[in-house]
Amino acid sequence: MTQTTAQTTYGYQDLGPLMGLMTGDEKHGPAATSTLDALWVLYDRVLRVDPRHPDDPGRDRFLLSKGHGPMAYYAVLAAKGFFPVDWLEGFGGYGSPLGHHPDRLLVPGAEIGSGSLGHGLPLAVGSALGLRAQGLTDPAVWVLIGDAELDEGSNHEALAYAGAAGLDRLHTLVIDNDSTTHGWRGGIASRFEAAGWSAATVDGRDHEALHAAFTAAHPGRPHAVVARVEQKN
Amino acid sequence: MDTMRERFISVTSQVLDEDPRLALVLAEISKDGFRPAQDRHPERVINVGIREQLLIGTGGGLALTGLRPVMHTFASFLVERPFEQIKLDFGHQGTGGVLVSAGASYDWPAGGFTHMSPGDVALLDTLDDWTVHVPGHPDEAEALLRHAYAAGDDKVYVRLSLQSNRTAQPVDGARFLTVREGRAGVVVAVGPMLDDVLAATEGLDVTVLYASTVRPFDDDALRAAAARGTDADVVLVEPYLAGTSTRAASDALVDVPHRVLGLGVSRAELRRYGSMDEHTADHGLDPAALRDRITAFLPKA
Question: Which of B136, B137, B173, B245 is least surrounded by CB atoms within 10 angstroms?
């Protein structure tokens, strides 16, 4: 990456160095974080969000539920212009808006504050219902959860209800780095499918596969994409 | 007379017709009463099933999109079970909503402790900036619910109960009312405790304040009432956990020497079924027991 203040557009290759601003590790590679590729494909090619109009009622909503390890999220938001790249260096500091868990009141573009696991999917269900109740049937609602986060019972309340209610503007992205202790027998996608969701499982590093799964049609049903990445060390 | 919960259903159904911003989230409880409203507004009357974490999370999501969510079930399942959702899905997100509970501290004694929630107001007291209404009559419930629905993006809890006073007071959603004036102490009756407090203090030289909105606490009213008497001695009579408002009263009187006695539902489980009157007596909240406890604390009364 060319480190100049004049740089205004960033690509996928810049995300590693942007994350390096937060961690101090200049060799930060995309593989160091499980969410980076899926986040990039979403923000670069799928989500209809505009940093100049972050409160547009018609925007798509992306809710980062797995608030742990938000460096990739911050890097993508900065790369897309939601806040200045020079905010990244203060990551976690007292005066920084960028904490180790995001706060929606501090981070432009962050739809929710998260960190406590299991809150995003229920909030996403309410967001999908709230948009529909106001006649906003076009915006998509996305929520990112982790495979271990799926342990939280609140997710199962939400996914069972969303399937039964046919919330077809709701999308769940599960980043599966096999970090859950007890595993998901039968596979994570099967939990969603049994509840009436459309579901796809893809290589979480393959941008074309992610894009295809993100944009697959799922009439009348919510949609889950399980993005499998390397096992957490 | 209808109950507070029946009034909640009729008033909320009406406001749903009038205010397109209002949305109701249920977790099965009261779904039959809301069926006509749900038929008229299927996208703003949402029953998520017996899922209380989702009840609050859904309300939080509705609020993120700009709606005014109303969430309802029994107090123990509305406030105690999904407490972290209340903390994070509203306060931390910077949004608001209205929690409306039924069941109170012991509205269904035969149901046992699983359906009792004496600690709900004390729990909410650990969070910032929640308004807490405790109506003492169905007409007050209606006024306070309408007040809550129109309160912008405020965070509001409305605690409904089968316990009720015979007549309604002209509540305004904020101030304590002076019901009786005296000089030997101040007795604050909260919500449905008013009739029993008035009976217990009959003929005593005390001021009786009536509180149907307990948070924020009406510091000015308590200070003014205390200043009228010889000593700043205060008895709080609350229909939930004893002592819940002791800190608030003490803070209001921080500048003057004062004593505070907090009466209410006792902490220990009774492990009894039976009737509401029996539980009121067991907690020492019937008029005779209240009079004994108040006069012991206020010997000049």
Answer: B173
> Which residues in chain B have Cβ-Cβ distances shorter than 8 Å to A153?
53
Answer for the pair A221, A49: CB distance below 8 angstroms, yes or no.
no
- B/e letters for B180-209, b = 16+ CB within 10 Å, e = fewer, are bebebbbbbbbbbbbbbbbebbeebbbbbb
Q: What is the pTM of this model?
A: 0.97
Beta carbons of B42 and A133 less than 8 angstroms apart: no
CB contact under 8 A, B61 and A129: yes
Helix (H, G, I), strand (E, B) or coil at B225: helix
Return the pLDDT at A24: 81
Q: Where are the alpha helices (DSSP H) in chain B?
A: 4-18, 35-40, 52-64, 75, 83-86, 120-124, 138-149, 194-200, 219-228, 246-252, 276-282, 287-297
Last residue of a domain, one of B110, B127, B159: B159
- Subunit contact B63:A112, Cβ cutoff 8 A: no
pLDDT number for residue B292: 98
Of B46, B54, B89, the CB nearest to A157: B54
Interval B164-209: pLDDT, tens? 999 999 999 999 999 999 999 999 999 999 999 999 999 999 999 9
pLDDT tens by residue, B212-235: 999 999 999 999 999 999 899 999
Residues B77 and B205 in one domain: no
Contact check, Cβ <8 Å, A113/B59: no
CATH code of the domain covering residue B124: 3.40.50.970
pLDDT tens, residue by residue, B113-126? 999 999 999 999 99
For tokens 């539902």, name the residue: B265
Q: Is residue B164 domain-resident?
A: no
Tell which A residues from 144 to 173 touch B, by Cβ distance under 8 Å.
153-154, 157-158, 160-161
Domain count, chain B: 2
Picking from B49, B51, B62, the nearest residue to A126 by CB comes out as B62
Using a CB-CB cut-off of 8 Å, the residues of chain B touching A112 are 64, 93
CATH classification of the domain holding B283: 3.40.50.920
Task: Evaluate whether A71 touches A91 at the Cβ level (below 8 Å).
Answer: yes
**CATH assignment of A34-69+101-228, given 3.40.50.970, 3.40.190.10, 3.40.50.2000, 3.40.50.150?**
3.40.50.970
Cβ atoms of B82 and B25 closer than 8 Å:
no
In chain A, domain spans: 34-69+101-228
Instruction: Assess if residue B171 is contained within a domain.
Output: no
Q: Is any Cβ of chain A less than 8 angstroms from the Cβ of B222?
A: no
Chain-chain contact of B54 with A131 (C-beta, under 8 angstroms):
no
The count of residues in chain A is 233
A176's tokens: 């599966």
Predicted confidence (pLDDT) per residue in B46-99, tens digit = 999 999 999 999 999 999 999 999 999 999 999 999 999 999 999 999 999 999
What pLDDT, on a 0 to 100 scale, did the predictor assign at position A28? 63
- The whole domain housing B54 covers 4-159
